[in-house]
Amino acid sequence: MIERYEFKYLVTEAMVPEIRRTVLSIGRRDPYAGEDGSYTIRSLYLDTPGYHLFWANGRQQRDRFKARVRTYPGKSAPTFLEIKRRTGDVIRKTRGVVSGDWLGLALGRRQPTAEEQRRSGLANFLEKTLRYHLEPKMLVDYEREAFASDIDSYARLTVDRRVRGQAVDRWTLEADEHRWRPVDIGLVADGYRESVAVLELKFERRPPRWMVGMVRRLELERRSFSKYGYTVETQLRQPERREPPGPSVFLDSALQTQPLSTSTA
């Protein structure tokens, strides 16, 4: 189990070079990044037939979780079956690693191997999937720059761009390239909309000093943001729109600022 705090911010591209310089002064890039410093993440998000997980997130329910199947296109990596649970500000993530037939395992068509049975993350995913009758809803894709601190026991910083999604109704990680819909979130400033990237700060117990200093220096404001939530908004609530989604439960919550404090819910 990974247990941590995870604070999110929406930042402009003009801020990214300073963010990058700050974290590289005390850490390093993710070793799995490509030549451009980033890699692609693709997740198949699951939900109940009534989208209960979506609505729990939109209401900012104190205790909630997401269920997803994650892969890394273009990488020779296994498939990860994940449950990401949030209780207040605390994130607890369990993941089961499946190198072979993940679909058969998720659908109960085969039994876990002895090695897979030893992984509690896999058991948690299968239990939640069966108990809540979870089914595929959305494929979400984005590009990530990731960095890790060399001076803290655990501190990571990620910058996500080009978030896109498509609705699905079957268990698959294969995408229809003609059905991707951009989830271009923008900030309204001086009467125009500016594209932004999603900055995430991940740490144990308290944010490191260098994170606090960077947030203050760039005058960043903590926001709530859900890639799955915005994708559902784009796909289902505004199916014909090609521009960023309009005001909604997720846009409203994303624009609610929060202080950099582990005591803030």
Describe the structure.
The structure is a single chain. A hairpin with a 2-residue loop joins strand 5 and strand 6. The protein has eight helices and twelve strands. It has helices at residues 16-24, 52-58, 102-106, 114-117, 120-131, 209-217, 227-237, 249-254; strands at residues 2-12, 27-29, 38-47, 63-71, 79-87, 90-98, 135-149, 155-167, 181-182, 186-189, 192-203, 222-223. It has 265 residues and is of the alpha+beta class. It is globular.
List its traits.
disordered C terminus; 265 residues; alpha+beta; eight-stranded antiparallel beta barrel
Summarize the structure.
The chain is of the alpha+beta class and 265 residues long.
Oligomer classification: single chain
Q: Tell me, what's the shape?
A: globular
Share in helix: 10-25%
| Number of extended strands | 12
* Poorly predicted regions: 187-192, 241-265
Give me the secondary-structure category: alpha+beta
